[in-house]
Amino acid sequence: MAVHPGDSPVHVALRTSDVDEARAFCRKMFYGPLQVNPVGDPAGFAFAGDVVTLGSITVGEISYGADVRVNIADLETAYHVLAPLNGSLWSRHRGTVVIADPTRAAVYRPVGDIDLEWPGDTRLLSVKVERAALERELDAALDQQIVSPLLLGESFDLAEGRGRTWSALVRLLHTELCAEEGLASSPRMAARWRDMVVSGLALTVEHPYGDEPAGLQGPRRPRTVKRTLDAMHAEPWRQFTAADLAAVAGVGVRVLQEAFRQHVGVSPLAYLRRLRLDGVHAELSRSDPWQVNVSEVAYRWGFTHLGRFAGAYRARFGVSPSQTLRERR
Asked: The CATH number of 5-204 is which of 2.60.120.10, 3.40.50.720, 2.60.40.1190, 2.60.40.10?
């Protein structure tokens, strides 16, 4: 395993009662467009941050000592997880509210503002994963082209199952990287650990590609399913029928539907609708609202009934298409 410069961890810590100094620290270690504002009397403000950067991931243990509001604009280049170690956190992202605590993490995608109400007694792990790293992980594991940004679930369980294992791994990694002579101080070992955090997150967080990436299940998807997926990704706007897709696959409609349910998790037409919605969402999220309108984008992605499209979009993303476009102003 080759060792690269990014495989060497960098540990930075700060303790301060100065709000501006804490804000500058968080901007430097995590995101530039970040605001931290105390709520009420800031006299008890006592920021504590231990942050380690290791290539494509940044892991920090953060607390403020006083109630604060944190606002962050589009992350753009990263996915992010907040996992409280104690206390709780109110979070709103893309119209969805999550109450994060030691039993549940909050998850953020690259697009969409983040609003946090962070009590003074809440200490948490803040995990930043570079967008390309997580998308590469899923892309390598799947037999299909993924849609970027990934449509991750807004939260996951920390008390049981994979979430519990992943959070334990992150806690141990952070502890080891903050120490001076642990195993993780070896760049080769640190790189392996970093890759485990990224791949573990891909397996833990909800995404639209089934319960588990096919490449991590063992057998690869059958050729009939792969052929159908390729056709839909090549022309997502095309008005495919179930019979059309079965003809592409070279099997009957019922056979193809059963194969999709087994290997993809949804029917072929449900997958196609989701693919189109993802495409519209991605285009609206990066478009100039003064140059495009929702109807044009929807038609371009194959939606001919705007009323049904708007309902399906809101059901998937929690906001209307026009609201997604307005957020870019």
From this structure: 2.60.120.10
Q: What is the 3-state secondary structure (H, E, C) of the chain?
A: CCCCHHHCCEEEEEEECCHHHHHHHHHHHCCCCEEEEECCCHHHCCEEEEEEEECCEEEEEEECCCCEEEEECCCCCEEEEEEEEECCEEEEECCEEEEEECCEEEEECCCCCEEEEECCCCEEEEEEEEHHHHHHHHHHHCCCCCCCCCCCCCEEECCCHHHHHHHHHHHHHHHHHHCCCCHHHCHHHHHHHHHHHHHHHHHHCCCCCCCCCHHHCCCCCCHHHHHHHHHHHHCCCCCCCHHHHHHHHCCCHHHHHHHHHHHCCCCHHHHHHHHHHHHHHHHHHHCCCCCCCHHHHHHHCCCCCHHHHHHHHHHHHCCCHHHHHHCCC
Domains of the chain by residue range: 5-204, 223-326
Per-residue model confidence as pLDDT tens for the chain (329 residues): 344 444 578 889 999 999 999 999 999 989 888 899 999 777 889 999 999 988 889 999 999 999 999 999 888 888 999 999 999 999 999 888 889 999 999 999 988 889 999 999 999 999 999 988 888 777 766 655 566 777 788 889 998 888 999 999 999 989 888 887 766 667 777 788 888 899 889 888 877 665 443 333 334 567 788 788 878 877 888 899 999 999 999 999 999 998 888 777 778 998 888 888 877 887 777 677 777 788 888 888 899 888 888 888 888 777 888 887 776 44
